[in-house]
Amino acid sequence: MPVRCTIGVDVGTSSSKGVLVDESGSILAQATRGHEVSRPRTGWVEMDGAVWWEEFVSITRELLAEVPDAEVTGVGVSGMGPCVLLGDADGTPVRPAILYGVDTRAGAQITAMTDELGVPELTRVGGSVLTSQAGGPKIVWIREEDPEAWARARRLFMPASFLALRLTGAYVLDHQSASQVSPLYDIEAERWHAPWWERFAAPLEAPALQWAGDIAGTVTAAAAAQTGIPEGVPVITGTIDAWTEAVSVGAHGAGDLMLMYGTTMFLVATVEETLRTPSMWTTAGAFAGTRNLAGGLSTSGALTAWLKDVTGSDYPQLLAEAETSGPGARGLLMLPYFAGERTPIQDPDARGVIAGLTLEHGRGDLYRAALEATALGVRHNVETMRQAGADIRRIVAVGGGTQGRLWLQVVSDVTGLVQEVPAITIGASYGAAFLAAGAVADTPPAIADWNPVTDTIAPDPALRDTYDALFDRYLRLYAGTADVAHELAAAQKHTAPDLAQP
Question: Which end is more exposed in the chain, N or C (fewer Cβ atoms within 10 Å of the end residue's Cβ)?
């Protein structure tokens, strides 16, 4: 007997993941395709957009092969962002996609656009100042630095919208993603800001705007032949992975904060009104009329993976040794800015620092310091959000990093926050499947039924003084080393490009 289900696929920084989910929220099949980004120069992070579709096709065929009696009723798409992938009039990419805030190449364009438009007007229209996270300066960078590609470019995509195009032929982008193509989106009017689109993005055609769970179109015959998904199945517009992850755990109500433990750490606070602060990102939400204050660390899982590689260890070893190291990592303090930093310092030229090293320290101490560094970064973001007016009352954890209890406990201890952990933490692909189910159901499902909270992580009050003191040192260490870090970053930009290769 056919099993009615939805497919959700998310294109992430280090992999694409897909799930096949039935009407009760049970996962029937999962598939993953690992990939690497390209770092052709220091500060550049790119990816071939064609890979997104190739992996989608491969994933959906694997999912459907695992469950031959699946009756697919809807398709959900999601992806990292904000990315800038430019395509020609047919949607064929004209160059690799420039990724989100970890790509810091557009510094000159950020400065020029800010000087021209002014901070007050930028924040009035778009909600945020321009940073490495903003899509607009990256569009201008392509126009100025890659004129051959620009001459062929006619359309703007992110991973979810590129998949929607290939599946349905619809050229759409969701409001949340559009709000991060700063400064080209009007946050209050919820539409493209025509004067600035014409000034900075023409002759690109502005994509039609929809909300994440809206139906973009239906699977075409050509897409059905490639993917195995039947022709005519509805496909949602989708959105950026962090927001789809928030949906997957029900963390999108006023007062909610989602912590996404992934290659980078992402935070999304849902607020009752538009909040503006130069330290964070003001965005539209996944659903009509909602607003977010968002932030992101440039490294988290990327930092722990780096330590695993350079020490030649595996995660179980490192976690066990970090547990033994204990709170404070035996006097080590790390700044996690190994790829610059996004919020709240907005410093692409920040660099990693490990302070307090002695000959007695080992890899477990380093790993513990890395976990604490990301936790200190989360605390810095949370405190900045609260200072801006965000009333954070509930924190939900999601993503691959939630599989390790130690990391969760360190974050709770450092921040003083209780974290809720739901039954399913695979994140954006599951959220995309849920959005698709809601789009096609007569009675949309509730995420609390699909994915209930099964664990809570409470901070240890005995560690409050320890981590209060460490947080103070964390702030002072950045202030005291920033000048030297910036000089080193400048030197790195003039070294051979292969310095930046993975």
Answer: N
Q: How far from 9 is each of 5, 167, 259, 262, 265, CA to CA, in Å? A: 13, 12, 20, 16, 20
What pLDDT was estimated at residue 54? Answer: 98
Task: Tell me the mean pLDDT per 10 residues along the chain, length 502.
Answer: 96 96 98 96 95 98 97 98 97 98 94 97 95 96 98 98 98 98 97 98 98 98 98 98 94 92 92 93 93 94 95 96 98 97 94 98 98 98 96 91 92 96 94 98 95 96 98 98 97 64 35
In a domain, 492, yes or no: yes
Q: Which amino acid is at 287?
A: F
Q: Based on the domain organization, do 128 and 273 belong to the same domain?
A: no
pLDDT at 440: 97
Consecutive H or E run containing 75: strand 70-79
Rg (CA), the chain: 22
Q: CB neighbours of 496 closer than 8 A, spacing ≥ 6?
A: none
This model's pTM is above 0.85: yes
Q: Which helix (H) or strand (E) holds 87?
A: strand 85-87
CATH assignment at residue 115: 3.30.420.40
Q: What is the reported pLDDT for 430?
A: 97
Same domain, 265 and 304: yes
C-alpha to C-alpha distances, 3 to 28, 73, 152, 424, 445, nearest whole angstrom: 10, 10, 44, 21, 16
State residue 498's pLDDT score.
46
Instruction: Tell whether 431 is covered by a domain.
Output: no
Q: Output the six-digit token pair for 195.
A: 């004067």
Dist. CA 216–CA 87, nearest whole Å = 19
203 and 338 fall within a common domain: no
Parent domain of 416: 250-422+464-502
Q: Both 283 and 222 in a single domain?
A: no
Separation in Å, CA 134 to CA 101, 179, 433: 7, 9, 27
Q: Do 141 and 276 belong together in one domain?
A: no
Contact 184, 196 (CB under 8 A): yes
Bond before 344 cis per omega within 30 degrees: yes
